[in-house]
């Protein structure tokens, strides 16, 4: 459920904000009005913060599953898991709402998109970096460090011929989500560090940030949404099987459609047999009359 929620957060930007960014690039500016700009900025923030909070939720889930396996079943029941996912999205929406009061959702011509303006408010920029990046990073780091400690303990027990507490499939799933977290931290760290630098002294620091550095860090951050599916496919065998099944179904559907279209086209292009029969009968009648 958490992975599906994370996938939904990654897809939000692809459905609405990114097409508008392409439109702005082709028209060399924003010409869609303030309402579209606010909606695009809101959905982009929804995707970003939703991804961060879902990654944090996944880390806490893995920590409870591996380090507190005896209480995991009661804590993460079906109903509770749905509530946790709903809580993640409620916190995501609450984290975005202050942007409308601060007026920080603006069009940035450097990246052709309506996004969070780091110079809108120094205190709010610091709060965004702390709540949306530093706190989740701290929580996820704590969870994964605790899991790594358990992994090392399990390896020692295996060497001592004791029964391990961690299954290989659990370890593979943990590694997959750990790589997701590491890439997230790498992709988002530059933009957040720039935000902190600008928040310290907006009039003095903002002009000193090169446009190319901001653009690279910005698109590097949003490129992170494209990486998660690739990571799942590379590191998780179950995802690879599903990817192969989806590709096979798509290819089979295309072959079926193309074959059906080819047969229909060939049937339409064949001459009708009725005229041939009539022509044969006319030839026979003419032969009788001649005889």
Automatic annotation (TrEMBL):
GO BP annotations listed: rhythmic process
Domain G-protein coupled receptors family 1 profile, residue spans: 1-232
InterPro entries recorded: GPCR_Rhodpsn (IPR000276), GPCR_Rhodpsn_7TM (IPR017452), Melatonin_rcpt (IPR000025)
Residue numbers spanned by region Disordered: 266-291
GO molecular function, one term: G protein-coupled receptor activity
Residues of the signal peptide: none
Comp. bias intervals (Basic and acidic residues): 282-291
UniProt subcellular location: Cell membrane
PROSITE patterns: G_PROTEIN_RECEP_F1_1, G_PROTEIN_RECEP_F1_2
Keywords from the named record: Biological rhythms, Cell membrane, Disulfide bond, G-protein coupled receptor, Membrane, Receptor, Transducer, Transmembrane, Transmembrane helix
Annotated membrane topology: Multi-pass membrane protein
Transmembrane region(s): 38-60, 81-102, 122-152, 173-200, 212-235
Origin superkingdom: Eukaryota
Family: Belongs to the G-protein coupled receptor 1 family.
Protein task: High affinity receptor for melatonin. The activity of this receptor is mediated by pertussis toxin sensitive G proteins that inhibits adenylate cyclase activity.
UniProt protein name: G-protein coupled receptors family 1 profile domain-containing protein
